[in-house]
Each structure stands twice: as structure tokens, then as C-alpha cells.
């Protein structure tokens, strides 16, 4: 059994890997088909992939929403805290992946290339 801490690390790195991998491979595709500014395209892809990486990391979120519903209806704060911690880990993983692509691009703040 992996346990709570193992799941946190897994969710963080899975979400980060999805953002990094999707945007890097999208950048390769942009180079192969000769799109202008492939690095800018990678940055835009990383931004768009954040929400999808978070949703797919949590398994489509239906299990997460069911657990939150059960926690709210049964006043089980342990389940609610656990699910929100998982959501936070996936969110921060996506954000770190985006920041890494942003650093690779050299952009500051949330500026997108034209």
C-alpha cells in the first residue's frame, strides 16, 4: 500500500509530467511543421494543459467529487481534508510544470508571446 504521502508525491509528479511532456512534445510538433515561435506555442500549451493534467491526474475527478460529497454529507472532515490535499498536490504539480516551461521560455509573469 502506497499510503497518503506516496499518493501526494505521485499526484504532484504525474500532473507536472503531463504539463511538461505535453508542452515539450507540442513544441517538437511545432518545429516539425515549421510553425513560427515554437517556444511561445509551448508556453501556451503548458497553460492550456494545466487544467486537463489536474483532472486526469485525479482520475476524471468523479471519485474525488464523490469523496467530497460523502465527507460533506457525513461531516467527515478527514475525508474532506484528504481530498483537498490531493487536489492541492495536483494543482501545484501543474503549476510547477508551467513555471518550468515559463523559465525555459524566459517569460516573466503571465506574458504570452504574440
Question: How would you portray this structure in words?
Answer:
- The protein is mainly alpha-helical.
- It has one domain (11-29, 37-105).
- The chain has 4 helices and no strands.
- Helix 1 (4-32) runs antiparallel to helix 2.
- It is elongated.
- The model has no long low-confidence stretch (mean pLDDT 83).
Question: Rg to the nearest angstrom?
Answer: 17 Å
Class by helix and strand content? mainly alpha
Tell me the fraction of residues in β-strands, as a range: under 5%
Query: What is the straight-line distance between the termini?
Result: 48 Å
Order of helical and strand elements: HHHH
Query: Percent range for helical residues?
Result: over 70%
Please describe the biggest sheet, giving its number of strands, its sense, and whether it closes into a barrel: none
The tally of structural domains comes to 1
Q: Total strand count, please?
A: 0
